[in-house]
Amino acid sequence: MLAIPISAGRRRTAVALTTAAVLAGLVAPTLNAPSAEAATPAYDDTYYAAAIGKSGPALKASLHTIISNQTKISYSAVWDALKATDQDPNNSNNVILLYSGVSRAKSLYGGNNGNWNREHVWAKSHGDFGTSTGPGTDIHHLRPTDVQVNSIRGNKDFDNGGSAVSNGGGSLTDSDSFEPRDAVKGDVARMIFYMAVRYEGGDGWADLEVNSSVNNGSNPYIGKLAVLKEWNAEDPPDAFEKRRNDVIYNSYQHNRNPFIDHPEWVESIW
C-alpha cells in the first residue's frame, strides 16, 4: 500500500485543530490507560477467590465463610494488638484515637481520664457478647479511644446529628445516637458491616445485623443502615485504614475486613 504524504499545510492545520481542542477544554483519551488486571485488588485471586462474581445474599454468605477462618485473641491481648494496628504513622510511640483523632502515648492506656481504652465499635451490649473471646475481642471493630469520649458514646447507635462531643474531634451525639468525626465515618461503617457478615449466629454468638433503627439496646442490631451506607460512600478507605487491615491479617487474626478491600460490596449486599 502506498503511503500518502501529508503536506506541510495539512500538518499545520492538524496542529491548529489540536491546539484549539485543548484550549476549548477537550481532553484526548490516554493512550496507555492501565489495564483492568492492573486495578484488581491484591487478594481477589487468592483470599476472595470464592466470592468474586457474586452479589447480594450469595456474596454475604461467601464472605462469611472466608472471614470466619480467623485466629482469635484474648481481651487482654487486645491492648498490645491496638498499639500495633492503630500506631501513629508519624510517631511510633503513640496511637491515633478513633473518635477524637488525637495522637496519644501507647503507655497511657487504662481507665482514667487522659487514658485511652478499648472501644467496641459494635457496642458489646448489642448482642450481649461482652468481652469474651470472639466478637468481644475481634480487633476489626476494637479501636483505641479517649476514656471520656468512649463513655459518651456508650452503646448508642450511629446516626447524623446532635451536639458537639467534648474533646471528640468533631464528633456529635444526642440522646440515642452518635456521629463520629468526618474522617472516620467510613471506617466506622465498614467495621459495622464486617461484624454483620462475620457473626451470623452459627458459632454460638448472636446473629448481628444492621437495621434502620436507633435505641436497639441489647438486641443484636445496630443502625442506622442508610446512614452507615452513606458514610461508607462519603469516606472511602485511606492509607491508615488499609494498613490496619493488613496488620490484622498478617500479624493477628489472619482474616480481613472485606469492605476495606471492596467498599462497593456494601451496596451489593445491603
Summarize the structure.
The protein is of the alpha+beta class and 270 residues long. Helix content is 34%, strand content 13%. The strands form 4 sheets. It has a 4-stranded mixed sheet, with no helix packed on it. Strands 1-2-3 form a 3-stranded antiparallel sheet.
Tag the structure with descriptive keywords:
single chain, 270 residues, alpha+beta, 4-stranded mixed sheet, 3-stranded antiparallel sheet, 11 strands, globular, signal
Structure, explained:
This is Endonuclease. The chain is 34% helix and 13% strand. A hairpin with a 7-residue loop joins β7 and β8. The protein has one domain. The strands form 4 sheets. The protein has a 4-stranded mixed beta sheet with strand order 6-9-8-7, with no helix packed on it. A 3-stranded antiparallel beta sheet has the order 1-2-3. It has a two-stranded antiparallel sheet with strand order 4-5. The protein has helices spanning 8-23, 56-67, 77-85, 147-153, 185-198, 225-234, 239-252, 258-261, 265-269, and strands spanning 87-88, 91-96, 103-105, 116-120, 142-146, 157-158, 163-164, 172-173, 177-179, 209-210, 221-222. It has 270 residues and is an alpha+beta fold. α5 (185-198) crosses α6 (225-234). The chain contains 9 helices and 11 strands.
